[in-house]
Write a structure and sequence with these properties.
Largest sheet: 7 strands, mixed
Structural class: alpha/beta
Shape: globular
Strand content: 15-25%
CATH topology of the largest domain: FAD/NAD(P)-binding domain
Distance between the termini: 48 Å
Mean pLDDT: 96
Oligomer: single chain
Helix content: 40-55%
Strand order of the largest sheet: 6-5-14-15-16-13-17
Bound molecules: flavin-adenine dinucleotide
CATH superfamily of the largest domain: FAD/NAD(P)-binding domain
Number of helices: 16
């Protein structure tokens, strides 16, 4: 295999993992990151922000041999705990027994991935370097140093953009003829808050769970951190009746929480400070194609497919990009033009599918998890799947616990919807949901749909 000189813009989650993959293959890799080194500088004001890591992510981490290390800093979340307005709790397992999604620290994981990449002496990461442009024919990329305020042009054999949803590399690709691109900001934004630990370091709510306060058009969620705290995120429309715009000051924010999330507010002693200091951030969906140019420049992760966070799959799908990139390297060897073409052809339908699935899961999380009919449907599906694993895997499990392509999971999920719509119309279902009759009905519907 020919060793290439590779430039990567962005040492976020995907860029650092990709550098580790290329480093392992012996390529000469230089990564340029806009921010300072998070291992020595506080990022995001030192707030702990976490993410849900699931099977696709684990597989990609396995590929560079660091999943065991990541597991040490991850908390399994076996179920959703739903908090009703009156504080009553209900529960929904995520998968089969022992199946969990894992809460990990974004900063902790990113730092670990950078260290893993830099274990290879052929990988170097440079910080405070903002990518400004890319010349797709050379190829070369230009970087502005925040320290020296100088611009330098780096030539290499290949340039990869893993510089996130507002990628500079993608901005350069967009200038090409017949380039398709869309950027859609959804009507909801988010604000992060926190629940501190008890004095003894334990968690104030069930630790191994993802907590949700579903409230129709908006919701609050909380994921556990190893230090006993929870990171909470309020998802709320920017404008309209229930919106950030309609919460103009701290007094109205407290009133809003007292009305809708009083049990959570009781656990938030730093609410006032955090509400004022933490920003309201936007959520964007990016779709574009192609993802590469002339076998020399390519984009991965959020740079090519940013999605909303409601399926917990943004990072996982970006990590899966790295798994597929490794498969493509094995398949195509030194033919990078065919490799990158094959990569984008295979990944694009899957990226589109998870973008759609993630929006759909927002409705499920904020609205349906509080709905008894929805919970009944989930119980029927889980029972049927346990008895007929060869015939049924719930959509959530296909996306989260399997490696089935997202595009296939979406298609199968649509077929399951049609079946379950009919099942849910059956009279007296609540009393016989676990009966032989319902099981047989599903078997016959499966044969016909
Ligand atoms: C609120 C929220 C919750 C989420 N929760 C989950 C979850 O539970 N599970 C999950 O799988 N995903 C989740 N995601 C999605 C996940 O955060 C992203 O999909 C993931 O971070 C994408 O990784 P990336 O490396 O492609 O981009 P990023 O993480 O955005 O990294 C891009 C990197 O490039 C750098 N950069 C940017 N511009 C330049 C430039 N011009 N030059 C050089 N460097 C540059 C940035 O500083 C950054 O380090 C969530 C997202 C949000 C917003």
């Amino acid at each position: 295999m020919e060793k290439k000189k590779i430039t990567i813009a962005g040492a976020g989650l995907v860029g650092s993992l990709l550098a580790a993959y290329f480093g392992k293959k012996g390529h000469q890799v230089e990564v340029y990151e806009r921010r300072p080194d998070m291992r020595t500088t506080l990022i995001d004001g030192g707030r702990s922000i976490n993410l849900a890591l699931s099977n696709r992510g684990w597989k990609a981490l396995d590929g560079v041999g660091i999943s065991e290390e990541v597991r040490k800093m991850a908390i399994p979340m076996y179920r959703r705990v739903m908090h009703a307005t009156d504080g009553a709790l209900s529960f929904q397992p995520y998968g089969k027994e022992n199946e969990a999604i894992y809460s990990v620290s974004r900063g902790g994981l990113n730092a670990l991935l950078m260290r893993e990449a830099e274990k290879h002496e052929n990988v170097q990461i440079f910080f405070n370097q903002r990518c400004e442009d890319v010349n797709t024919s050379a190829p070369s990329a230009t970087f502005f140093s925040e320290e020296t305020e100088k611009i330098k042009e780096i030539e290499s054999d290949l340039v990869f953009g893993t510089d996130g949803a507002f990628s500079a590399i993608r901005t350069a690709l967009i200038k090409n003829d017949r380039y398709n691109y869309s950027q859609h900001f959804i009507e909801h934004g988010y604000k992060e808050l926190s629940i501190p630990a008890n004095a003894d370091g334990s968690h104030k709510m069930e630790r191994e769970a993802l907590h949700i306060w579903p409230r129709g058009n908006f919701m609050l969620i909380a994921l556990p951190n190893p230090d006993g705290t929870f990171t909470c995120t309020l998802f709320l429309a920017h404008e309209g009746e229930y919106s950030f715009e309609n919460i103009p000051n701290l007094a109205s924010a407290r009133k809003f929480f007292e009305t809708h999330f009083s049990d959570a507010l009781n656990l938030m002693p730093h609410f006032d400070k955090e509400w004022v200091e933490n920003p309201v951030s936007s959520l964007v969906i990016i779709r574009c194609f192609p993802w590469s140019k002339d076998g020399k420049v390519a984009i991965l992760g959020d740079a090519s497919h940013a999605i909303v966070p409601f399926y917990g799959q943004g990072m996982n799908s970006g990590f899966e990009d790295c798994t597929v990139m490794a498969e493509m390297m094995a398949k195509h060897g030194d033919d990078w033009e065919s490799l990158l073409k094959d990569f984008e052809q295979q990944r694009k339908p899957d990226a589109d599918a998870i973008a759609d699935l993630a929006m759909r899961n927002f409705v499920e999380m904020r609205d349906l998890t509080g709905n008894p009919e929805f919970l009944l449907r989930k119980k029927i599906e889980a029972r049927f799947a346990a008895r007929h694993p060869d015939k049924w895997m719930p959509l959530y499990s296909m996306v989260t616990f399997s490696h089935i392509r997202y595009s296939e999971a979406l298609k199968e999920g649509q077929r399951q919807d049609k079946i379950m719509e009919e099942v849910m119309m059956i009279d007296g279902l609540a009393d016989k949901w676990d009966s032989e009759e319902i099981e047989q009905k599903m078997i016959s519907l499966l044969a016909s749909k």
